[in-house]
Specification:
alpha+beta, about 25% helix, Deoxyribonuclease I, Chain A
């Protein structure tokens, strides 16, 4: 089973940069999770409605041109839109595909970088989402949460960690929250289990020469329950072609969707 996740920073922009053609070359994949669509289903390019004969699902924000998530699956799942927090469900941040023994989620946490009001929103999301993560663990099935979590967990996960300790995305409170997700709730950072090397980033600022100098952040994850995480066999960050300011994170699991 191959799962791909990518923050596309606008689905129409990503398609102009060749996203649907790349998805054809990235076969065989089973599930693709996208974040930050900045478009409703009526605005999605035709090639990205259901690429490669998949089933396409979309959750847009009520605010036009903002946030939103999508999920493509080769097998038809049962889909849940939102996790029960009205403020954030209206922003289009959580889309869950239930395949029976396995659930795959496309998730997009708020960014706090636009100012204190957005950081406050991010903290509210974290507070509201933690009980849902607890509930996911109680369901006694496997779960993979794919997407842009907007938090770099450890110093290895961003280039300039010393100068970013007071900035959104690497605040002590954010990092401690993610540690709680891993250490107390038992979820697994799948990529980091497979790849412990430094300078493995999924996001680069458009300012300066961040991409050219590889001044990046690893804020896109596949975070999974232990059973399915143990079946992960390979993980990679695709950087040969750019579709947004993020890069696709690809993980192959020794698992077959049924």
């Amino acid at each position: 089973m191959r799962i791909i996740t990518l923050n596309i920073n606008g689905i129409r922009s990503a398609e102009r940069k060749g996203l649907s053609r790349w998805l054809a070359r990235a076969e065989p994949w089973d599930v693709v999770c996208l974040q930050d669509l900045k478009a409703g289903p009526d605005d999605v390019p035709r090639a990205l409605l259901a690429p490669r004969k998949s089933h396409g699902f979309f959750l847009q924000a009520t605010r036009k041109g903002y946030a939103g998530v999508a999920l493509y699956a080769k097998q038809a799942p049962k889909v849940t839109k939102g996790f029960g927090a009205s403020e954030f469900d209206a922003e289009g941040r959580y889309l869950e595909a239930d395949f029976g023994k396995l659930a795959v989620v496309s998730i997009y946490l708020p960014s706090g970088s636009a100012g204190p009001h957005r950081q406050a929103s991010k903290f509210r999301f974290m507070e509201a989402f933690l009980p849902h993560l607890v509930e996911l663990r109680r369901r006694r099935r496997e779960v993979i949460l794919c997407g842009d979590w907007n938090i770099a967990h450890q110093p290895i996960d961003l280039k300039n960690w010393r100068s970013n300790q007071k900035n959104s995305g690497f605040l002590p409170e954010e990092r401690a929250w993610l540690t709680q997700v891993f250490d107390e709730l038992g979820f697994v950072d799948v990529f980091r289990v497979l790849n412990k090397e430094p300078e493995q980033y999924t996001y680069w600022s458009t300012r300066g020469q961040a991409w050219k100098k590889n001044v990046g952040w690893r804020i896109d994850y596949q975070i999974a329950t232990p059973g399915i995480a143990a079946k992960a066999r390979a993980a990679s960050i695709y950087k040969n072609r750019r579709f947004s300011d993020h890069a696709p994170l690809i993980v192959d699991y020794d698992y077959e969707l049924r």
